[in-house]
Amino acid sequence: MIFTYRSVIDAPADAVFDWHCRPGALERLSPGSERIVPVARLGGVADNGVTTLRVKIGPFWKTWVAQHAEYNKYARSFKDKQTSGPFKRWEHTHCVIPANSDACVLEDRIEYNLGFGSAVDAAAKMLVIEPKLRRVFRYRHTIVASDVRRHLAAASPPMRIGVTGATGLVGEALCAFLSTGGHTVIPFARPGRPSPGFLNSTISWNPDADFVQLQQLEGFDAIVHLAGENIASKRWSAKQKEIIRRSRVEGTQMLCGAIAKLQKPPRVLVCASAVGYYGNRGSNELDESSHTGFDYLAKLCADWERASAPAAERGVRVVNLRFGVILSSKGGALAKMLPPFRLGAGGRIGSGDQWMSWISHYDAVAAIHHAIYNNTVRGPANTVAPHAATNSEFTKTLGRVLRRPAIAPLPAAAVQIVFGEIGDALLLGGQRVVPRVLLDSGFRFEHARLEDALRFELLMN
After folding, report:
1. 214 class by beta-carbon count within 10 Å (0-12 exposed, 13-18 middle, 19+ buried)
2. Mean pLDDT value of segment 218-233
3. Which residues contact 241 (CB under 8 A, 6 or more apart)?
4. What's the mean pLDDT in 372-398?
5. d(CA 387, CA 384)
6. pLDDT tier, 380 (very low <50, low <70, confident <90, very high otherwise)
7. How high is the pLDDT of residue 120?
8. Residue 278 DSSP class
9. Which of 3, 119, 178, 436 has the most other CB atoms within 10 Å of its CB?
């Protein structure tokens, strides 16, 4: 059986082929909803490398081992051949065909055999395999086209970029994105902690012990600081609040203090922050000039941003990205909402009138890239889509995308009992935030509308 997917990419063929051959391409091409987890690598595309994956097929996890083969730089093609896995045969040919100097055709051709017999294989192909492949490769080709366009638009030479929080929801995707653009990406790693498997070197640091090797920080073009305790991982006891504060405020102070001591500091430091900076502000429209709030999260974010001052005083361009809710099926709020909504048991929270400032996972990564290379972006920048939604609008849209009812409300009293203070702050409160700085600096959102973002992330186009 043969499956072929083609699309026209408005970029030179060499740029598209090079993107596929760089570290991080597999991570960029793997939708979160498909549960594809790389577990081991030996070599790369050009040297017959072998990749071992864990893939979820129905309720079961399977091991899939694939080997790169028949790499041809001049024909701009290579193959992935299954050596063991769920198929009797699987051979995937990647090919980039020039259309003209500024465009190409990306072609993915898969020859496969399930091994269950002709009748069963034909039924599985029609009902399951090919509909799924069409969804996945539509997603993949969109990612390739968008990534390559952004790398070409930046028109910057390869950079050396350090990333803290590199194994987090955004950090791992950012490292993959930057790597496919030809940049050298080096994650910060605590002792005994893993780093993204497609990257080979790390910087040793331990913010709890106030330790980072200064020599390793010399000569970076950019550092992206995403590390910090997950604010929604546990109820907010006094102890947990202090853990969150230390990880975000004191960790940033330590890093920026080290940067200030460097002989050759980075040109730009991009630091994570959050729209919690504004507090619970009802339906007021907020931009970067709006004042901070007065609750725990607002004070935390304000202190978090102030902690980057030593780097700015050293002459580094510092950008504080105030993230909204990042929509990803791999983790965060959306991943937690999916199980009940898929069962038809989702619905609005509390009154449903609270505002939710969100951003797609893709645009969150792209906004960091924009902040790195766009010299006009400095200071706070709201990292949210242009159109916030109320909780009621959000839940109705998610139900529509999943083709499920969204009529099971979660009363405010239940939220307060189950979640305590964190429920008031994250579920019953909200902010209506506008990304003024990003828009004014020319950032182009891939997903400006909520339904588009959800359909893309969940492969429900």
Report:
1. exposed
2. 93
3. 296
4. 97
5. 8
6. very high
7. 67
8. G
9. 178
Residues near 307 by Cβ (< 8 Å), separated by ≥ 6?
249, 250, 252, 253, 256
Comparing C-alpha atoms, which of 181, 91, 139 is closest to residue 372? Answer: 181
Q: Is the dihedral of CA 120, 126, 128, 130 positive or negative?
A: positive
Record the tokens describing residue 375, joined without a space.
Answer: 């010299």
Which residue's structure tokens are 């003209």? 100
The pairing of beta strand 160-164 with beta strand 184-189: parallel
Domains of the chain: 2-154 (3.30.530.20), 160-457 (3.40.50.720)
Per residue in 405-435, pLDDT tens? Answer: 999 888 888 888 777 887 888 888 899 999 9
What's the rounded Cα separation, in Å, for the pair 228 and 304?
10
- Collapsing DSSP to helix, strand or coil, 182 comes out as coil
CA dihedral over 421, 426, 432, 434, signed as positive or negative: positive
Task: Give 175's pLDDT tier (boundaries 50, 70, 90).
Answer: very high
Q: Indicate if the pLDDT at residue 66 is higher than 80.
A: yes
For every residue of 389-446, DSSP letters joined together read EEHHHHHHHHHHHHT------B-HHHHHHHHTHHHIIIII---EE--HHHHHTT---S
CA 144 – CA 19 distance, rounded (Å): 8
Whether residue 262 is predicted with pLDDT greater than 70 in this model: the reply is: yes
Pick from 293, 286, 415, 290: which is nearest to 352 by CA? 415
pLDDT at 86: 86
> In 241-391, at which residue ranges do the beta strands (DSSP E only) sit?
268-274, 285-286, 317-323, 325-327, 355-356, 358-360, 379-383, 389-390
Confirm if 206 and 193 have CB atoms less than 8 A apart.
no
- pTM surpassing 0.90? yes
Instruction: Show the tokens assigned to 298.
Output: 């607002």
Give the mean model confidence (pLDDT) for residues 382-410: 95
Q: Is the pLDDT of residue 124 over 80?
A: no
- CA atoms of 195 and 69, how far apart (whole Å): 27
Can you tell me the distance from the alpha carbon of 417 to that of 286, in angstroms, rounded to the nearest whole number? 30
Residues 6+ apart with CB under 8 A from 67: 48, 49, 50, 51, 80, 81, 83
Strand 50-57 and strand 36-42: the pairing is antiparallel
